[in-house]
User: What shape does this take?
Amino acid sequence: ELSFAWIFNEYPSFVQEDRRRFVSQETGHLYIAKVEPSDVGNYSCVVTSRASSSPVLGSPTPLVLRTDGVMGEYEPKIEVQFPETLAAAKGSTVRLECFALGNPVPQINWRRTDGLPFPSKIKLRKSNGMIEIPNFQQEDAGLYECITENSRGKNIARGRLTYYAKPHWLQTIKDEEVAVEDTLYWDCRASGKPKPSYRWLKNGEQLAIEGRIQIENGALTISNLNLTDSGRYQCIAENKHGVISSSAELRVVASAPDFSTSPMKKLIQVQIGSTVDFECKPKAFPKAKCSWKKGGEQLHENERYHVT
Assistant: This one.
């Protein structure tokens, strides 16, 4: 949440970053690869926070040249480098810093050790002292190298970027009304890296797994439902990077057969030799067993009578 800059002598003369000069946004430190007489002066650190509109200015630090000799040529010495292992979130912007002191001023280049070329979205910033990877995806993970080189030699910094993703819903649960003695199946699925684990709550308490209540790969199955199974259920998916939840209401219903919403017709007129259908659709939980009578006698299926 902090950004760093340095003032040279007095505001608004800021240090301009180039091949010789580098400001780390990780530590705030200023590095000068090869000091020249024009660098002599006072340096003040400026810190800006997203939470505050007012920057904070540090006290001046003087830079003077020593008079007891001249620094000879030497190979690159890497002073700023990225971690050996860095976990990056899906969709995030990753910035890796690398800067070396040296005389002559070192060249900085980047590569992947697997030989794959950088996609166009990857940008080199600050005279190659920083690599920026926007919208980080799994294919961006791997081992990266920063190569610093001058006429006296070269040094390499290496680090591995690993990919992680917070849980994200692929399938959530919705309110259900199910008949008593039926079976409930709720599929609760999430993606993530590492793969999320699942747990279920009923009315805010851990759901106990027993014979007719089973959980497999996040899916909840309750067989032979009874009225006490009604309640508020919550599926929770989590990995070490985040937790998400989805909730729904289960209503287990039981009622005797009722024809009030779908009564049978009082009279059906048909021609001799035609086919006639009688609909029997009572509302009932659990589903009603139906039988038919003609007059007062039980109707049995034959080549002309068929019950679906």
The chain has no helices and 28 strands. The radius of gyration is 36 Å. The mean pLDDT is 91. The CA atoms of residues 196 and 238 lie 5 Å apart.
